[in-house]
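User: I'm writing a tutorial on reading structure tokens. Could you give me a worked example: one chain, its sequence, then its tokens, then a sentence or two explaining what the tokens reveal?
Assistant: Sure. Here is the example chain.
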Amino acid sequence: MGTKFGASVVALLLFFLSLHTSFSASNDGLIRVGLKKGKMDQINRFGQQIGKREQSCGGSARNHHVRGTVGDSDIDILELKNYMNAQYFGEIGIGTPPQKFTVIFDTGSSNLWVPSAKCYFSVACYLHSKYKSSYSSSYEKNGKSAEIHYGTGSIAGFFSQDHVTIGDLVVKTQDFIEATKEPGITFVAAKFDGIFGLGFQEISVGNAVPVWYNMVDQGLVKEPVFSFWFNRNAGEKEGGEIVFGGVDSNHFKGEHTHVPVTRKGYWQFDMGDVLIGGESTGFCDGGCSAIADSGTSLLAGPTTVITQINHAIGATGVVSQECKTVVAQYGKTIIEMLLAQAEPQKICSQIGLCYFDGTQDISVGIESVVDKKGDDLSGIHGGASCTACQMMVVWMQNQIRGNQTEEKILNYINELCDKLPSPMGESAVDCGSLSSMPSISFTIGGKVFDLAPEQYVLQVGEGDVAQCISGFTALDVAPPRGPLWILGDVFMGQYHTVFNYGNMTVGFAEAA
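And here are its predicted structure tokens:
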């Protein structure tokens, strides 16, 4: 959850688009509940959770193959729908009768929370479904306060207890958080209502028993196993599925490589070498730790290696790229306007990159990309382009005072663009260079798992307006917990993932 720059980038990681949700019972005896697929940025969520979540309201600092068979009544399959390969979420029910909520199924956290009807002062709560305890005959009061911090947002509220419906399964007397505060833009923009944590109780705020534990303890699933299949073809109607109680053999090839969970909390395991184009980076020769995290869109790792990877694939900071685009399109115009004694604070609004001219809002009458296409959160008249233009005006003023030539000024500004950091660590690549990019590989359980360029690059938009985002972002976790890799949807989308609670293993096989 966080902020992004550029219209297409904002569309990928801040704007949440929902698809139609359906519920159906197929003739094979398995229940399928249609889920939504949307865009949520949790790139930096994990690193901040490590420090913050374990301090929040009681959270403590702390080669088995199962196949579901046709007719099994104790296997629950949740079908996923896909939007831009960014984030998966779906519908559950809480209470009797069930009140419907859309939630992220997140293996990187352990609590269930949804907005509360008692949330009065957060805009996000007014835009989402809210739990009303008075409407449920199975509600039990708890009242213990709770707070969860994510890297790009936080929630606060109190615990309650009620029945939770997942497909046709009903988990009884489940503790969950009624959120009464949801600050920040992330939850306002989101089409999902809450989070359904699938991690271990060790990282559960308030030491609440996770829903998954109760599913197992109440005998609702065939085996203590759940699995994910993500369909990364954004154009197909079926986006994937999560199976509780086993796996769907139709969605993977060969056998899974299973590795033991080394530290309960997140689904953490040991990982070996990382390779670029088949060549060792050497960083994990002595071993690294990793987690499989369905709640993270990209793939995060130590800066040392991520820098090597992004260099090898020609990635540059998103903000830097946006800055250079403004230089190329408007640099000469800005210089000419400054030389013509135009008011510096009004230049960016006069050329259409900002809504504000330094004295007043002039957005009325400006047609944004949203108005034109209906599918982006914001147009080019604000955000990164506006910020880049405003910085450029200041930089150019100083250069003009020094009597620099136009060529030298533009070269200098481009050099400054190169130094601009991307706040969330995101990087862009040339969409036309995929064929020349190397494979990136990860060694798990002695087996090498490859990612091809078209698998680790996320493309936003089509044709001339398409932007491509590197699937790799830097995240440094200090020892003893780190160095740590977070294998999010970029990895899990290519490799069917099995979370075996009984054997305490995580397994990966090529997705089909």
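What the tokens reveal: The longest strand covers residues 153-166. The two ends are 29 Å apart (CA to CA).
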